[in-house]
Design brief:
mainly alpha
Length: 75
């Protein structure tokens, strides 16, 4: 689970970077309606990233707790 959550987080971070570039490009070209829409999408993606960060933190703690309960070393 932590591996998939980390992968999803990386993909989301890449989407954020692309969306920021889209906002800047739209603004520079004077396409402010397009920039506004891109900012709205960026907000949604950012909320998703925050949720993924939380999910990753929880998954890592669960994995560490399970390993500790089995007497194993955690990552």
């Amino acid at each position: 689970m932590p591996e998939q959550a980390a992968k999803n987080l990386r993909v989301t971070e890449e989407l954020i970077a692309c969306q920021i570039a889209r906002v800047r490009s739209s603004e520079a070209a004077g396409r402010f309606d397009e920039a506004r829409l891109a900012r709205e999408i960026l907000g949604v993606i950012t909320e998703t990233r925050d949720a993924l960060r939380l999910r990753l933190a929880v998954a890592r703690k669960v994995k560490a707790t399970a390993a500790k309960a089995r007497g194993e070393e955690s990552e």
